[in-house]
Amino acid sequence: MPFEGSYLWRLRQKVGSDLVLIPGAMVFLVRDDGAVLFTRRADNGLWCLPAGGAEEGSSFAATAITELREETGVDLDPAGLEAFACLSEAELHTITYPGGDVSHCFALLFLARHWSGDPGPDGVETTEMLWADPAAPPSPLQEPSAHALDLYRAYREGGGFQVR
Q1: Is 161 exposed, middle or buried (0-12, 13-18, 19+ CB in 10 A)?
Q2: Looking at residue 79, what is its pLDDT?
Q3: Residues 36/131, Cβ–Cβ less than 8 Å
């Protein structure tokens, strides 16, 4: 869903650019060779992982599936999502957007290894995408995605749910 008309957009009409707390999800779409899909944001030109805020009545898994579909055009079966981490520390996941809006995001991070469709940018939220080794992500990388990559590395090295 485009920003205009979304839950967050409606909330912004009431609170302006003040800090808001947003639940959301981030997806690591991982190919068999280990490459991860990165997208370039249309609003600030930074590279990131597909992610977004929840809409009213949505779950973390549904948010992950919806955001991935909207931003990349691929579809996932919810059974194919593997939650591996959460990113919620304010100093790591507070985002100031180009228009001045500030959000502290609470994201559940998912891995997805099986999907249908060929990824492609939507032209609204994402302008391009590429597959990259998570150890060598594209630059410039949005800060929350950089922290999410740290959690992904820790998960791959030691297993267990990662919290930051």
Answers
A1: exposed
A2: 95
A3: yes
Do 69 and 56 form a contact (C-beta atoms < 8 A)?
no
123: left (phi over 0), alpha (psi -120 to 50) or beta: left
What averages of pLDDT result for each successive group of 10 residues across the chain (164 residues)? Answer: 84 95 97 98 94 94 96 95 96 87 94 96 94 98 94 95 92
CA pair distance 129, 148, nearest whole angstrom: 18
Amino acid at residue number 14: K
Query: Global pTM?
Result: 0.91
126 half-sphere exposure, CB direction, 13 A CA radius: 25
What sign for the dihedral angle of Cα 38, 40, 45, 50? negative
Give CA angle at 76 (66, 51), nearest 5°: 40
Q: Say how far apart CA 150 and CA 123 lie, in whole Å.
A: 28
